[in-house]
């Protein structure tokens, strides 16, 4: 049964078949600034699992460390719904966990860039934790 995620105003959505191959939270400084929070909670799906995507505004941030990153946001509420990062996750679609109807249905496999996690933010319940990017 397909699962879907949508922006805050429900104008932009993505529908996916199957389960994510992994879910993680990234605490890097970019993800903190992009979300305005302590990190970015992400579900990773193969592009072949994308059933349908509604129109979204494509952002092409110039990021020397992650060339080719494209973010897809709602042009109305500016929610960051999904994106691609061909260097780190070739052939994958990354979806914001907070955009799913029930983000609690997903189990975190890891947290990354914990060296940037604010000291007041508790450790999250994940299978693995990495101070930097693994690998």
TrEMBL record:
NADP keyword on record: no
Keyword list, A-Z: Lyase, Metal-binding, Zinc
Pfam families, alphabetized: GFA
SUPFAM superfamilies referenced in this protein's UniProt entry, alphabetically: Mss4-like (SSF51316)
Start and end residues of each CENP-V/GFA domain: 3-125
Ribosomal protein as UniProt keyword: no
InterPro entries found in the cross-reference section: CENP-V/GFA, Mss4-like_sf
Alphabetized GO MF terms: carbon-sulfur lyase activity; metal ion binding
Family: Belongs to the Gfa family.
Descriptive protein name: Uncharacterized conserved protein
Organism annotation: Parasphingorhabdus marina DSM 22363
Species lineage: Bacteria, Pseudomonadati, Pseudomonadota, Alphaproteobacteria, Sphingomonadales
């Amino acid at each position: 049964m397909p699962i879907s995620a949508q922006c805050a105003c429900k104008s932009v959505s993505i529908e996916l078949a199957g389960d994510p191959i992994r879910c993680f939270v990234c605490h890097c400084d970019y993800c903190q600034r992009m979300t305005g929070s302590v990190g970015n909670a992400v579900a990773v799906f193969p592009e072949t699992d994308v059933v349908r995507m509604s129109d979204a505004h494509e952002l092409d941030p110039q990021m020397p460390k992650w060339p080719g990153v494209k973010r897809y946001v709602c042009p109305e509420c500016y929610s960051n719904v999904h994106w691609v990062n061909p260097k780190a996750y070739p052939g994958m679609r990354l979806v914001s966990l907070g955009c799913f109807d029930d983000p609690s249905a997903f189990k975190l496999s890891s947290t990354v860039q914990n060296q940037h996690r604010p000291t007041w933010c508790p450790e999250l319940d994940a299978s693995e934790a990495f101070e930097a990017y693994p690998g």
